[in-house]
Amino acid sequence: MQALNIGATIRLDFTPVTSWDEYHDAFVAAFGLPAFYGRNGHALLDCLSSLRDADTGMCRVVVAPGEVVLVQVDGLAAMPRELRESFIMTLELLSERCAAREQSSPIVLVII
Predict the structure, then answer these.
(1) CB 16 within 8 A of CB 76
(2) Looking at residue 73, what is its pLDDT?
(3) What is residue 70's three-state secondary structure?
(4) How far apart are CA 31 and CA 77, in angstroms?
(5) What is the pLDDT of residues 2-19, one digit of tens each?
(6) Strand partners of residue 69
(7) Could you report the per-residue pLDDT of 37-94, keeping only the tens digit for each?
(8) DSSP 3-state assignment of 36?
(9) I want to staple 43 with a disulfide (CB 3.0 to 4.6 A). Which of 38, 67, 84, 112 is the partner?
(10) H helices within the chain, ranges in order?
């Protein structure tokens, strides 16, 4: 097994999340998404796909190629099912997008 090269560690707090607005607020706070972030699934996927590309300005959190962002996720189990499923789908789509580019996902989760 290859060791993880952790470039950044952040906390994604879903504890207070009960609505779509709060869901997107959590990502804005954790990843430092830009003011023009579209607050929808496609925009979120685009931002997360840019975690290794500082030139895009899509995330305040940026790691180098080969590094990962270690994301501590709090409150996932307490979130409404629809939001929890959206989070999982976003991670799956991010992994697929990275695989198509022959890259590994830039995110590693620790679920609390």
Answers:
(1) no
(2) 97
(3) strand
(4) 21
(5) 688 999 999 999 999 999
(6) 8, 107
(7) 999 999 999 999 999 999 999 999 999 998 999 999 999 999 999 999 999 999 999 9
(8) coil
(9) 38
(10) 20-31, 41-48, 81-100
- DSSP count for the chain of H helices, then E strands: 3, 3
Backbone dihedral angles phi then psi of residue 20, each to the nearest 5 degrees: -60, -40
The reported pTM is 0.93
Residue that is written with structure tokens 């899509």 in the block: 58
Q: Which two tokens stand for residue 25?
A: 């607020």
What is the identity of the amino acid at 63? V
CA distance 80 to 59: 26
The 10 Å CB-count burial string (b at 16+, else e) for 77-110 is: eebeeebbebbeebbebbeeebeeeeebbbbeee
Amino acid type, 86: S
Band of the pLDDT at 1, cuts 50, 70, 90? low
Contact, 23 vs 37, CB < 8 A? no
